[in-house]
Amino acid sequence: MSRLKIILMSFACSLAVIIIVALYFLVPAENVIIPFPNGKEFAFSIFDDTDLATVENVKPVYDLLYKLGIVTTKSIWPMPTEESDWIPNQGQTLADADYRNFILDIQNKGFEIGFHGSRGGSSTRTGVEAGIKRFEDIVGHIPYIYANHSENHENLYWGEHRLDVFLIKYLYRLYTKKSEDYFSGHKVNSIYFWGDIAKEKITYVRNFTFNDINTIKMNRSMPYHDGKKPYVNYWFSSSDGNDVTKFNQLLSKKNLDKLQKEHGVCIVYTHFAYGFVKNGVLNSETEERLRDLASRNGYFVPVTELLDYIHQHRRVESNISFREKLRMQIIFLLEKIFN
Question: For a 10 Å CB count at each end of the chain, is N or C smaller?
Answer without folding.
Answer: N
